[in-house]
Amino acid sequence: MFGKKDDKKITAEQVLAALSKVMDPDLHTDIVTLGMISDIKIDGGKVFFKLTLTTPACPVKEKLEQEAKSNVAAIPGVTEVEMESTANVSTRGKVAGREDVPGIKQIVAITSGKGGVGKTTVSINLAVALSQLGAKVGLLDADITGPNAPLMLGVDGYEPTTRDNKIVPAENYGVKCISMAFFVSNDTPVIWRGPMLDKAIRQFLRDVDWGELDYLIVDMPPGTGDAQLTMCQATNMAGGVVVTTPQGVACLDARKGVAMFQQMHVPVLGMIENMSYFVGPNGERIEIFGHGGGKDLASELEVEFLGEVPLETAVREGGDGGHPITDADGTAASSKAFLEIAQKLAAQVSIQARQPVAAGVGADAHGHAHEHGHSHGHSSHQHGPDCKH
Fold first, then answer.
1. Residue 120 CA, distance from chain mean position
2. Fewer CB within 10 Å, N side or C side of the chain?
3. Closest among 121, 53, 82 to 325, alpha carbons compared
4. List of E strands, the chain
């Protein structure tokens, strides 16, 4: 009949059906099932919906956004699509005997089997990269006896204050930072036994005003000692990342780092090959330490290979000068590598957050039950985080 309008209306069910065809390639599930879609509003031919990603550092953010809008636009009768894209980092399932840190959604430990592989450089630049991607990030320097993260982050002159009986961390490049370096002079060695190291790390976790963080990056000391045990036993970590260089000796020790996380029932989020090759003055590639050892080891151990970072003079200059390459020069090959690795790391954290917690996580490396009420019984005469300015 002339003048009769088509009274077919677009429904929320149609919108959800269209969006359910969009798959997250990392989580292998559609975005509707993942709970990423909300606030669907329909006004005639106009459709609005909200897309909430699992991390602001999502490596497939643009792909998911484009597919979501395209699929909704293809619904008959849709004339306009408006989408709000946001992110909400989820937390890992509760692990018996391991406590969450209030306000911190995910804790990631960066470690290495041996010193000299550039682990702190990697930790600093990954933290800065995650911040650049929109995440709220903190950095805990757990290398109590050899703290140098503040120098590399450009906050080595910071003098801590307190707020509501908590230590206020330093902040630069969008990253909050706490370190033993803030509490001792540069010439004062920290000669502490294991229980004192344990206490300091626990204080840095719980007595610091971190606020709300998506990720706390923990720069661990080299090896598989007391600091690693404390972090694995005391906190509900998202997982650990092992940094190595290509040569055989470093990879041998990296293997032990992976085994340590596995024995402590902490997910291994991946491996990074640092100093993978040297970029010469004319852009030539020189494989000083060989190449591919880290990737081969990751494949052998069946852990994710997060990427390789080249050795560039600007990386060293940025570390010494307190201006990380990720912020100083976004066009540098190393800067691009750190940004890509940060996205892959965030994806791995999201994947682990959806995994069921394995049974037996309350056992330590020797199969003993964790005891968190350590009776250290030490007098607090040592200078350290107890000395709040």
1. 14
2. N
3. 121
4. 23-24, 29-30, 37-43, 46-53, 80-87, 104-111, 137-141, 161-163, 166-168, 170-172, 175-178, 213-219, 239-244, 268-279, 285-286, 305-311
Indicate the SS3 state at residue 109: strand
Q: What is the pLDDT confidence band of residue 177, given thresholds at 50, 70 and 90?
A: very high
Task: For the chain, list the domains and their CATH numbers.
Answer: 12-87 (3.30.300.130), 104-353 (3.40.50.300)
Phi, psi of 7, deg, nearest 5: -90, 15
Element containing residue 186 per DSSP (H, E): none
Q: What is the DSSP string of 42-53?
A: EETTEEEEEEEE
Q: For residue 148, what is the enclosing H or E element?
A: none
Q: How far is residue 111's CA from residue 119's CA, in Å, rounded to a whole number? A: 7
Tokens of 281: 């003055």
Residue 182 DSSP code: G
- Average pLDDT over the chain, rounded to an integer: 86
Task: Kindly report which listed range (169-173, 191-195, 234-238, 296-300) carries the lowest average pLDDT score.
Answer: 191-195
- As a whole number of angstroms, the distance between CA 132 and CA 138 comes to 13
Tokens of 150: 């503040």
DSSP secondary structure of 268-334: EEEEEEEEEEEE-TTS-EE-BTBSSHHHHHHHHHT--EEEEEEE-HHHHHHHHHT--HHHH-TTSHH
136 Cβ contact partners less than 8 Å away, ≥ 6 residues apart: 211, 212, 213, 214, 215
- Amino acid identity of residue 99, one-letter, is E
Helices (H) and strands (E) in the chain, counts: 11, 16
- The secondary structure of residue 369, as a DSSP letter, is B
Q: By percentage, how much of the chain surpasses pLDDT 70? A: 87
- How big is the chain, counted in residues? 389
pLDDT value of residue 234: 76
pLDDT the model gives residue 358:
57
